[in-house]
Amino acid sequence: DQDVSGSIDRKDFESAAAPILTQMMVPIKKVLDETGLTASELSTVEAVGGGCRIPCVKKAIAEFVGKELSFHCDADESCAKGLVLQAAMLSPSFRTREYQVVDICQQAVEVAWGPMSGAEEDKTLVFGAENPIPSTKLISFNERTEPFKLVARYVEPPLGVAAELANFTITGFPKKLVGEKAKVKVWMKLNIHGTVEIANAQLVETLPVVEEPAMEVETPVEAKKEEAKKEEANKDEGKKEEEKKDEAAKEEEPKAEGTGEKKEKKPKKKYHRTDLKVSSSNLALSFDDYKVLEQIEAEMFNTDKLVFETQALRNDLETYVLEMRGKVRGELKTYLSPEASTKFLEELQNAEYWIEDEGWDAQKSTLSKKLNELKVTGDPIFKRQYEYNNGTELINRLKTTIGKYRQLASSKDEKYAHIDSKDMESIVTKCNDFDEWATDMAVKFGNAKKYENPPIQCSAIKEKQKELVDFAQPILSRPKPQPKKEEKKEEAKEEGKKEEAKKEEAKADSAKMEEEKSSEEEKKEEDMDLD
User: Fold this and answer.
1) Which pLDDT tens digit goes with each residue over 109-148?
2) Is the separation of the CB atoms in 148 and 115 below 8 Å?
3) How far apart, in whole angstroms, are the C-alpha atoms of residue 64 and residue 34?
4) What is the CA radius of gyration of the chain?
5) Peptide bond just before 134 cis, omega within 30 deg
6) How far is Cα 365 from Cα 372, in angstroms, rounded to an integer?
């Protein structure tokens, strides 16, 4: 990359932009004309978009509408937020406030039709200017029994935009018609994306009418006679029989006329519908061209990805050099010998010079190799720091564990009385061996130089800890054996005998007390006799 800068006088800039400013007023004027408003009737003119910050743009619009522009909305994010909100309203995955936004197609769309290999026969306007979308219109073609084509185009295409939108062919007509008349119905749709498409096409044939015989409906004469008799019985008895006969005759006349009435039904039209095949072609790229462009796009993506990864790796290398140099002089100083520290600091300094010079344009593989070379020296330093900082602590933790198990193995507690003494002695012996080893390692750690490798690694100390726990814990956790059933029976018998003996003793004591009472009473009686 290379930075480019320049300057231009404001007057020269505005004179060069004058044709563009004039062109910007065209859509504003068009909106006013279509709405029937004048600039003076506008209460507020809100400006959005980054371009509205240019002074000459603000000045030109303000002069055209005759008032100062308002900048209450975020000029950069207003359009983006509106698009995001519209997308959320259309998506089934999001819920927004319920309010209606009607999108429109600004340009009028017409459809022309004709035979497959001939000139166009006619055309008609299907979607007018500012037609809301989505929208569907039905077009009917009379006496169509062979394949034909349709062409959708803009009535007045925008500047620089092709008029033709899409070509459609309607095929799939039956070889022989079953009806008398044929009509083709085509449903043209302006979908939610503003694209013209054919939703469906049908061939509708009117079937010949079959006349059905008229049905004769007779009135129930007998029922009417009974009604007449009831009416006659309710009349005054003083009337003459002749009047009764005249009235009966008058009532029978409409009955006779009612017999044999006919109801005619209008014949219903029946239709036969056949779905037709619709194929479309538009101004899109061919499949081969699409694949070529897709491959070019993939190559561009990989190139951009490589550039991004190279920049990230260069930053990682530079960060490693700067941070490592400070740590070698500070917290890692004791983990490097003076000679190794001087040499490593020199390598880091040379790496920094290389990044600013040759490394700035170096490839990803070269940068990765340079970083790995520095880590060959740097990673062991961090490892020694970890081993020395954690080794002593792990040894002390091991000694604590040794003391714990040795105390439990030497304990005379009742809960360990069932464990064999040999097993308990083996725990004590193990603890003594491990204690001797841990003491030796603690001394070596204390005498070791930190810029040299530690006498033992932390992983080995952890293994010793695990070995001791796996040996001692199963022995100390051994459960007590349960007493046998025979012993329980004998104990129950002995307890029963003891209870019987207690009962006999109680009986003997009660008998003795009764004897003493009786003897006392006899003495009292003797005394009474003497008196």
Assistant:
1) 999 998 888 788 889 999 998 899 889 999 999 888 888 9
2) yes
3) 17
4) 55
5) yes
6) 11
**Residues 360, 364, 370, 372: is their CA dihedral positive or negative?**
positive
Residues 6+ apart with CB under 8 A from 283: 162, 164, 165, 166
Report which of 49, 101, 99 is spatially closest to residue 79, judged by C-alpha positions. Answer: 49
Beta strands in 173-239 (DSSP E): 181-190, 196-206, 215-217
Structural tokens at position 365 = 């593989």
pLDDT in tens, 469-523: 999 999 888 888 776 655 555 666 677 777 777 777 777 766 666 666 666 555 5
Instruction: Say if pTM beats, i.e. exceeds, 0.85.
Output: no
Q: Output the six-digit token pair for 116.
A: 């497959």
> If DSSP codes are grouped into helix, strand and coil, which group holds residue 531?
coil
Phi, psi of 448 (to 5 degrees): -75, 150
Half-sphere exposure of 84 (CA within 13 A, CB side): 5
The SS3 call for residue 275 is: strand
Question: What tens digit of pLDDT does each residue of 422-467 get?
Answer: 888 999 999 999 999 999 999 988 888 888 888 889 999 999 999 9
